[in-house]
Amino acid sequence: MPGPDIKFCRLCGSPSDRRVPHGEDRERPVCRACGYVDYVNPTNVVGTVPVWGADGDHVLLCLRAIEPRKGFWTLPAGFLEVGETLAEGAARETREEAGARIELDGLFTVLDVVHARQVHVFYRARMLDDSLDPGPETAEARIVSLDEIPWDDLAFATVRWTLERYLEDRASGRFGVHTATIPPRIESS
């Protein structure tokens, strides 16, 4: 997948061209004046699978108040910030989106979303109480039983895949770390 069309150098502002730099194997934006090579890397999305109940039989979902996928349900997640670990970012996003207090239980899914230039990382988490205070990106935060997950109204394939793994692992009594590559969504015409 080609990178974004970067036309100007972020260091000196001169025009950049797409070409294969010496010793590299793919095209990248290269400044005509100073030679700076602009490496465009995937964005990290971090989140949690916050569960409630003695045996984790409820999960926290957030109804998106923003695009993309406004009006659909998701796990609390968002972009990792510079200066924080994956775990810190996942906990922060859960606080920001749902106002939930959690304790992380470990890394759960790592998903390559190549078509979106993203990597999604979810942690398992236990909710410390059932109080919620959704932020501006969330229209509603709700704790639902596992048999009430709105499968047809989930916002993203990564959320569906992660919830499916949670149900499988919970049924087996053993939680692991799961990885996958999520294909592009096929839009119906």
Structure description:
The chain has two helices and ten strands. The chain folds into two domains: 40 residues, Single Sheet (Ubiquitin Ligase Nedd4, Chain: W), CATH 2.20.70; 139 residues, Nucleoside Triphosphate Pyrophosphohydrolase (Alpha-Beta Complex), CATH 3.90.79.10. The chain is elongated. The protein is an alpha+beta fold and 189 residues long. The two termini are 24 Å apart. Strand 1 and strand 2 form a beta hairpin. The strands form two sheets. Strands 3, 4, 5, 6, 7, 8, 9 and 10 form an eight-stranded mixed sheet that branches. A two-stranded antiparallel ribbon has the order 1-2.
Strand-helix topology:
Elements: E1 16-19, E2 28-31, E3 43-52, E4 58-64, E5 73-74, E6 77-79, H1 86-98, E7 102-113, E8 118-127, E9 138-145, H2 157-172, E10 178-181
Parallel strand pairs: 3-8, 7-10
Antiparallel strand pairs: 1-2, 3-4, 3-6, 4-5, 4-9, 7-8
Compact description:
By secondary structure, the chain is of the alpha+beta class. It has 2 domains: 1-40, Single Sheet (Ubiquitin Ligase Nedd4, Chain: W); 43-181, Nucleoside Triphosphate Pyrophosphohydrolase.
Tally of structural domains: 2
CATH class of the largest domain: Alpha Beta
Q: Report the β-strand fraction as a percent range.
A: 25-35%
Intertermini distance: 24 Å
Q: Helix- and strand-based class? A: alpha+beta
Mean pLDDT: 95
Number of distinct helices: 2
CATH architecture of the largest domain: Alpha-Beta Complex
Total strands? 10
* Elements, N to C (H/E): EEEEEEHEEEHE
- Would you identify the CATH H-level superfamily of the largest domain? Nucleoside Triphosphate Pyrophosphohydrolase
Shape: elongated
Helix content: 10-25%
Largest sheet: 8 strands, mixed
Radius of gyration: 19 Å
